[in-house]
């Protein structure tokens, strides 16, 4: 009756088209490509949105770093490319110089030429709109090339615990974004969040990765929609379940889940985290911060 899942838009996009043709609601757990909610697909909903990434990553640069010269390197995937363009627009409207704005193919093994441009253009901050493995390689090659920045901010994957594990002391001062992870609970429901963590550890033997909460919140939302259809006395079908999802308003540890008329989440948030003394702390925005940002990163 419904589909849940999809980490990247190269999967979520085709799945959404099949779901639309089959009139089956599809709730994507981690989709960012803005085109997917502009196609008039009534059966497509998602838990995340690009706008929150733009707000968090540009907001800390403008309000906390007060940087004047920024570099943006981005993976040539739909979500990362759109994020980079939106960041550039916001920063340039605010009067900042985006000295380097370069795409690269996923899986690139040598970032040295791009990093040389970042260094030669005098960028203070590097926005890295790519994924976990690319971030690690970038950071290691920055050290090898003696590229010094005031801040490195990775949009996707820098919240994963393996960043600290794999980079060790080199991870200190790095920035990332998150919407939920153990110790960071934007939804305000600490009891439910902790219960989820404990149940996950018991079943899988380790703490949940940050994105697992997107799946939990999606499943909880779908469950509420199913209950609403059942309570209404209507038959559960793709159409009735789709209508219930469109009306859903659910509190989760990820935050409040409610969709606009296109299927985008109205209340999805991202915060900026920094690795300080070997652990993650929230440094932006101010109303969620648990510690001040250490800028320039030491």
Concise summary:
This protein has 298 residues and is of the alpha/beta class.
Q: What can you tell me about this protein's structure?
A:
By secondary structure, the chain is of the alpha/beta class. It has helices at about 10-20, 50-65, 80-95, 110-120, 130-145, 160-165, 190-205, 210-230, 240-245; strands at about 5, 25-30, 45, 70-75, 95-105, 125-130, 150-155, 175-180, 180, 185, 250, 255, 270-275, 280-285. The protein folds into 2 domains: about 5-50 and about 190-200 and about 210-255, Response regulator (Rossmann fold, 3-Layer(aba) Sandwich), CATH 3.40.50; about 50-180 and about 270-285, Rossmann fold (3-Layer(aba) Sandwich), CATH 3.40.50. The strands form 5 sheets. Strands 5-4-6-7 form a 4-stranded parallel β-sheet, with helices on both faces. Strands 1-2-3 form a 3-stranded parallel β-sheet, sandwiched between helices. Strands 8-13-14 form a 3-stranded antiparallel β-sheet, covered by helices on one side. The longest helix has 21 residues, at about 210-230. The mean pLDDT is about 95.
Largest sheet: 4 strands, parallel
Unreliable parts: none
Distance between termini? 52 Å
CATH-defined topology of the largest domain: Rossmann fold
CATH class of the largest domain: Alpha Beta
Could you give the order of strands across the largest sheet? 5-4-6-7
The ordered H/E elements are EHEEHEHEHEHEHEEEHHHEEEE
Q: Roughly what percent helix?
A: 40-55%
CATH superfamily of the largest domain: Response regulator
Q: What's the Cα radius of gyration?
A: 20 Å
Gross CATH architecture of the largest domain: 3-Layer(aba) Sandwich
What is the arithmetic mean of pLDDT?
94
SS-derived structural category: alpha/beta
Distinct helical segment count: 9
What's the quaternary structure here? single chain
Instruction: Please report the total strand number as a whole number.
Output: 14
What is the general shape?
A: globular
Tally of individual domains: 2
How much of the sequence lies in strands comes to 15-25%
